[in-house]
Every structure is written in structure tokens, then in C-alpha cells.
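Encode chain A's predicted structure.
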Amino acid sequence: MRIATSQIYNQSVQTMDNQQAQLAQLSQELSSGTALNTPADNPIGAAQAVTLSVASATLTQYTTNQSSAQSALQLEGSTLGSVTSVMQSVKSLMIQANNGSLSDTDRNAIAQEMQSYRNQLLALANTTNGSGNAIFSGFQSTTQPFTNLPGGGVSYNGDTGQQLAQVSGSRQIQTNDSGQSVFMSVPTTGTTPVAAGASGNTGTGTISPVTLSNPAIATNNDSYTIQFAGTAAAPTYSVTDNTTVPPTVITPPTAYAATSGSTLTLNLGAGMSTTISGTPNSGDQFTVTPATSQVNSSVFATLDSVITALKTPTAGNASALANLTNVLTAGQSALQNSQTNVSMVQASVGGRGQELTALQTLTSTSTLQTQTSLSAVTSTNVAATISQFEQLQTSLSAAQKSFVQIQQMSLFQYVNP
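Encoded structure for chain A:
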């Protein structure tokens, strides 16, 4: 078989060119620290790198979402803690005010202090985050959630929207609670019905807080009216369940002995009772309404009614003092229900925060694993690449020396020695 000299030269040159190209590629890998500069360098590795890069970017976004959600929940939790503290202070003032030995001046001073706490509560309900967005406005984050109404109470200007953050591939976490659910609602569980006296009562009758003997009874959620009638010599009372349609008289007009020290215990259904003390006049009325009813749900309306009652003079007026006592009784029950609601929301916020903390740990671990895998595919193995570079450099040097020797070989050297 005949091999031309030109063929030998071409093969040698091509081999050296390939080795030089490989040396150039290895040199680039060493200088850049990246083993995949183009997909052609390693098609399979390039496909793996794309998949891992997408996974890494997704995990990075989850980490960002988790941090934002955690910050939102921490701010809300801190705010709700302050709300609870203010409510506890107001509750103490209500207990202090329910003292018959206090003067009108004393009660007015308590009303002023309670008004200050009410203002603090409104400021907390209108809390904004670092971006100036209200945290209790639902989706209406640029709107101040609560404004005062002229006749007392507040207007809620937000909505009930729940802001959700995608914190993992399969989990969204609620990062807010609306002002409606925090300050103007109470739960059905863990709360008690509210007993109150009508503002127009003229007698000295006072109603006690409701006692629950069986919280599971369905009729505990009904609304009741206790109506006094008859004459001073022959007073009567009746009890009506207003929830049924039509209302049901569960205790028809019944005579009782009305004296200054008498008490009247009333069973409302099979699960709760209340007691009326003093001497109600004919036409006086008392109510027991569910904790969840609109009249009992707004903590601001509760405080405003108590503050107004505390500012009303009672000196020398037994009827006015009895009405004040009834307002304080209703106010304490309603406030306790509102405080229970805030505590439940706060517990929910804390639970979501704990879940986020666990997810942050899991995401951090997954991110590290993904980045390690991506680095293994795309980063240069410096030791192995240097070894390969030196071996290839030695091979190229040997090939160049051999080519020089081959170029010098000729048959004429043997024909004409």
C-alpha cells in the first residue's frame, strides 16, 4: 500500500490542530472556571444544567416569597400583640368603673382614659407596613381601613381579601387578615352570648352576664327578649325567643316578687341562664343576643357605647346607675369575645409563621443541593483539567517534534550517501 508524503503531512497537521483546539478549550475552562461555555461542549450536561438552573431560579423565588410573607406575618403578629395589650387595659378600666362608690367625676376620668386606649386601638387597626400599605385592608392595601363614624363606631373601608404567597411548589400561605375579621367579628366557639339592658329602662333592674351550662346546645345562639309588664303591685315578666319564625314565647307572662334585693334567675333554653337583680319597672326590657350578632361584633362600637355611658351623670339617680351597670356588663362580655377573636387570629398568624420557618429551612437545603448539582455539571474540575491540559500539551509537543523529524526524512539520503 502506497502512502503519499502529502497524506502523512496532512494527518500530522490535522492531529496537531485538534490538540491545539483542545488545549485552547481547556485553557478557557481553567480561566473561566466553567466547563460548559457552549452547549456543544457537553450536550447532555447542557440539558442537565438548563433543568437545574430553572429549579434554582424557582427556589430563589420561593425564598424571596417566604421572606416577604414572614415579614408580613411578623408585623401582623406584633400588631395583634399590641391590640391584645390595649384590650386588656380597657377591660381593667371597665371592671374599675363598675363600682357604685365612684363619683361622676371619677367615671368621667375613666372615660377619658378609655378614649385614649380607643384611639390607640384605631391607630393599630390602621397600621401600615414599610411600603405604606395598610395590613388590615384586605386587597385594598392603599386604603385606610378604618375611619370614625359621627355617631360612634367605625366604618370599614377595606375588603375581606386574603393575600396569598406561593412559598413552595404546592403551598400558598395567607399573609394577611382583614380588619373585618379582626376587629368587627367574633367566632362562634369560645365566646358567650351578651346580656344587655335597654337604654330606655326606668327601673333599677340589672342583668348578669350569661352563664353557659351546656355550650353545645344550639339554642344558645338564639336571641332572647325579657320583657317586664304588669303593675308595681303585680309585676310580670315574659321571655321570647326572637330567632324562630315567628318568635316563640318560651315563658309566658309570669308573676314574680319584685323587691329591692330580689333576684330572678331565667333559664334560656337548655344550655344557659342569666339573673336579673333589682326592681325593673313595667316596660323595661333586657336582651340576650349571640356573641356573633352585629351589635356585639365591633370592638369599636363596644368601646364607644361604654365611653358614652361613663360620661352620663348618675349621681342621685338609681335608674341611671342601673343602666350604666347594664352597659358595663354588656361591654365586658362583648370585649372579652373580641379579645378571644384577636387571640385566635394571633394564634393563626403564629402557626403560619412557624410553617414558613420550616419551609425556609427546607427550601434552603433544596437550594444548596441544586446549586451543588449545577456546579458539578457546569464548573471546571481544576485538578483534573490541569492534568488533562499537561498531558495534552506533552502529546502536542511530542507530535510537533515527530513531525519535524518526519519532514527531514528523504530517500535521496540513502541513494546518494
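Residues 1-33+388-417 form one domain.
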